[in-house]
């Protein structure tokens, strides 16, 4: 499973990238708005740090306006992946961008039928939002499972990018179900390392070692 960081914060991206375990980054307009810096500067800097797929979302909602916006973003770096919403215009833009060999992440996916449309439009990644489905009392993980079955049975190569991840359990389950990518907040990435028995075990090893040095 590839690990993407779901943030536009450069400090978090630098910290996480140091581990060598981060394969890419996803941003969205809400994450970018928190940084109070020009969008294109942020995207450029992320691509220089991570050197892996970096999703940058178009703001326009109609096809004609989306295309120049997407083409401008794609010129920032070879690592830029254009993020489009799962709408009629978004999928039309996806199809055109893929014909130009530009990678596309189709975002805001909440149903298997939407994922089917995105795959038919040639999406590189489909982003089902697990946490937001959980938030309204539906089982987000069931959607990952359904899309994985659907893509396998139809032979689609679109990668499942598990998004809107709230905790480490989401990552474990999405990995078991075969999602190729998980995008996670920095906090969740850090939590993946931790287990109380690792901490107490290490403390005991170090204390015992100290005794041998007396
Ligand atoms: C994915 O690319 C989105 O940026 C993200 O996962 C949305 O998550 P949220 O529901 O926590 O805002």
Can you give a write-up of this model?
There is one protein chain. The chain is of the alpha/beta class. The protein has a single domain (2-212), classed as Aldolase class I (TIM Barrel), CATH 3.20.20.70. Helices cover 53% and strands 17% of the residues. The chain has helices spanning 10-17, 29-35, 39-50, 63-74, 88-99, 112-120, 130-135, 140-154, 168-176, 186-191, 196-212; strands at 2-6, 24-26, 54-57, 80-85, 104-109, 125-128, 159-162, 181-184. Strands 1-2-3-4-5-6-7-8 form an eight-stranded parallel barrel, surrounded by six helices. β5, α6 and β6 (125-128) form a beta-alpha-beta unit. The longest helix has 17 residues, at 196-212. The chain is globular. The protein starts with a strand and ends with a helix. The model has no long low-confidence stretch (mean pLDDT 98). It binds erythose-4-phosphate. Residues 6, 26, 28, 107, 127, 129, 131-132, 163-164, 183 line the site of erythose-4-phosphate (E4P).
Question: Which features characterize this protein?
Answer:
single chain; 214 residues; alpha/beta; TIM Barrel; eight-stranded parallel beta barrel; globular; binds erythose-4-phosphate
Rg, rounded, reads: 19 Å
CATH architecture: Alpha-Beta Barrel
Biggest sheet, spatial arrangement of strands: 1-2-3-4-5-6-7-8
Number of helices: 11
Poorly predicted parts: none
Average pLDDT works out at: 98
* Biggest sheet architecture: 8 strands, parallel, barrel
Structural class: alpha/beta
